Each structure stands twice: as C-alpha cells, then as structure tokens.
Here is the input.
Amino acid sequence: MSQTLARQKVCFILNPKSGTRSGVDVPSLIEQGLDTQHWEPCLLKTEYAGHATELARQAAEDGTRLVVAVGGDGTVNEVARGLLHTNTALGILPKGSGNGLARHLKIPLKLPQALELINKATFHHIDSCSINSHPFFCTAGIGFDGLVSSAFAKSVKRGLASYVQLIIKEFRTYLAQEATIQINDRELSSEFFVIAFANASQYGNDAFIAPMADIQDGLLDVCLIRHVGLTEALQLGYGLMTKTISTSSLAEFHTCATVQVHSQIPQHFHADGEYIGQATQFEVTLFPKSLEIVAALG
Ligand SMILES: Nc1ncnc2c1ncn2[C@@H]1O[C@H](COP(=O)(O)OP(=O)(O)OP(=O)(O)O)[C@@H](O)[C@H]1O
Here is the structure.
C-alpha cells in the first residue's frame, strides 16, 4: 500500500534589486528544479526595503515550513529576522554580491545546486545575534566598516569592485576612535579602527574577519583592530582574503556571549553589511541555536 506524505509549504522571497546577476530567471529555475512532491511552492517579490521581513513573518503565520531568501545578505537578514521565534526555517538561494552567510553555511553559489539543497531539506539550528536590538546572522561592526557600509548604502553601484573603491576612498581620511569595550569581565580602552562581531566567519566575498567562528557554538567572535596605517591596511587586506587574519599581530580576538561598547563620540555601525546609523553605546548579544536553517553544515 503506498502512502502519500502531505506536501510542505515553501515560500521564496525574491529581492529583484540584489546582486549583480539580475539576469537569473528565478521563477523558471524553481519551476524546473524544485521537488514538488515534497514542496508546495509560492514566490513573492519584494517591493521595497524591509518588505521581506513582513512577507516572511506572514508566511510563518500561515504555517509555511521553509522561507527561502533569494538575494544577498541584506535580504537574508530581512527574511531571517521575520522568522525568529517561529517554527519556520530559513533557506537561501544566494543572489547577492557578497553572500557571506550562504558561503559560511556552504550553500552552493550556483542557484540550481542551491535549490538541490532545498530539495534535500536537511535542517540545522544556528545562533543569531543582535546589535542594539538589530538582529544579525553573519557579522556586525562598529567604526571603519560601519562607515564603509554607510557609503555603500548611498552608492548606486553594487558588487565587490565598488566596495573596494569605497574602502580606499574612506580609508584616506578615517581616524581610529576612542572606545571602551566590556568583554568577559574585562575592560579594554583604546582607539579602535574596527570592532567587528562575527557569528559567521566572513563579511562576504570570502573576506574572512574571523576564520575560526563557529555559527553553532553559542559564542560571538570579536575582532579588535586598533591603529591602521597604509602598510597595516595592506597586511589586513591580505589576511582577510587568505583566511590568516587570526594569526596577524594587528588583530586581537575574543569570544563571548555578550559585549558592551562605549564611545565618547557617535560611531557608525552595521548589521550584516546594512548600515544602521550612529551610536555611542552598543550592546551586542548572541542567542544560541535560535534560527532553524537548511544548509550543508557537517
Ligand atoms: N524591491 C526593492 N527595492 C529596493 N530595495 C530593495 C527591494 N527589496 C529589497 N531591497 C533592499 O535591497 C538591499 C540590498 O539587498 P541584498 O543585500 O540582498 O543584495 P546585495 O547588497 O547585492 O548583496 P550582499 O548583501 O550579499 O552584498 C537590502 O538593503 C534590501 O532592504
């Protein structure tokens, strides 16, 4: 006697503005590649920034088992924050420019292969974090990388090349800022060029700010970078792209579940590469195994 299992709902949320590969025909890809014996699909397109969170929350309320973010880290962040504290899992079809979380989770960057992973439906739980109550899943940062995300938000150009151009432009005038960090009952005061918080190991584009970060270990990896001149910037850039920054004397690493930062002057900050604004007080917290995902984790 054959038994038919009920199909589960999957909702794809597509950001048409993300990434540089706008030519990909996502509806056809889903139509041709999705295992419709297992999944009952719907496809929604975002119409404005922030829309993906509303769509994901609604899909979770409607009993959808899996919501797939089709976009980059900004879209993934918006979808994932709509799924926190629900029984709905996150999937990713990476279509962004950096795809930091997808890369960390070993989700294939080729969309047909990423869809195959959705078909396999292997679920895991990962940690999530917040900076001043803004959820993030990959990385957040204060200082120079906050400033770069602010400049990138204003730029019309996407992609790695325009990111690098902005870094070079902003680096010329940026000065490290005085801050006090409370971490594991210790207080560290110094000028900091970057204070980075890593749930996943990389910013995106395989730029590894915390190569040893484990997204399931209940710990944030905090990377502190103090004074940076031109020589140090080149060394750090090399360390980021070769996964060797953790062995550099220019970067100091700590692991913790919460961290507070105080700065006399307002500092720019970002969550998952999206510019948030400026603040003088920062509270960064990790929530263990708080998001269910489909990924290729071992
Ligand atoms: N319909 C839309 N119109 C304009 N902006 C949108 C729309 N939908 C989403 N957005 C915004 O687009 C921004 C960029 O999206 P996303 O981060 O996914 O792509 P990306 O920047 O190319 O990739 P990555 O972050 O991986 O580099 C997000 O901040 C999101 O809020």
User: Anything to note?
Assistant: The first helix runs from residue 26 to 33.
